[in-house]
């Protein structure tokens, strides 16, 4: 009788522990969803693309492709002039990062990492002939270029 009671108590304890564990996991998922919610709200994302969103994405893609075609038609001298201006912007950004580090807004390691990314972005953009519009967001590669089709949302061609 004592062994049977012990087994029942242990089973109940185990079930309670499993239930608590499941509740914690569920709460963590809810917290993660809640943490992402402001981002989704800001972006207007509700889990599926509306027809308006698809149309807007298609229009932006068409504008980006047209801009890329015009960029490709520029002479090397015109492109170099744009790249030189981008280098000047990069140098100014670097000066701002240096000030942030100097005044204690960011640490030296963070500042150095940002400086490295600025330099790398500018170098890659020039080497690969990418159009520098869009601040790296339009083509997701540091400039306007055709976006990777593999990353295109479902329903966008």
Characterise the protein shown here.
The protein is mainly alpha-helical. The chain has helices at 2-43, 51-73, 76-102, 108-128. Helix 3 runs antiparallel to helix 4 (108-128). The protein is elongated and about 95 Å long. The N and C termini lie far apart (70 Å).
Summarize the structure.
The chain is mainly α and 157 residues long. 72% of the residues lie in helices and 0% in strands.
Beginning-to-end CA distance, first to last residue = 70 Å
Shape: elongated
Class inferred from helices and paired strands: mainly alpha
The stretches of 5 or more residues where confidence is low (pLDDT under 50) are 135-152
Element layout with pairings:
Blueprint: H1 2-43, H2 51-73, H3 76-102, H4 108-128
Brief descriptors of the model:
mainly alpha; 157 residues
């Amino acid at each position: 009788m004592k062994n049977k009671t012990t087994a029942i108590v242990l089973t109940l304890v185990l079930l309670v522990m499993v239930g608590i564990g499941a509740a914690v996991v569920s709460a963590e998922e809810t917290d993660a969803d809640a943490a992402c919610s402001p981002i989704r709200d800001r972006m207007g994302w509700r889990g599926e693309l509306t027809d308006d969103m698809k149309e807007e994405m298609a229009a932006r893609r068409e504008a980006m492709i047209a801009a890329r075609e015009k960029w490709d038609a520029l002479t090397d001298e015109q492109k170099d002039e744009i790249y030189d201006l981008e280098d000047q912007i990069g140098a100014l950004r670097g000066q701002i990062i240096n000030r942030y580090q100097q005044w204690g807004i960011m640490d030296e390691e963070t500042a150095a990492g940002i400086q490295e990314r600025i330099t790398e972005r500018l170098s890659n953009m020039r080497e690969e002939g990418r159009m520098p519009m869009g601040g790296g967001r339009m083509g997701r590669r540091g400039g306007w270029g055709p976006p990777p089709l593999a990353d295109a949302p479902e329903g966008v061609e």
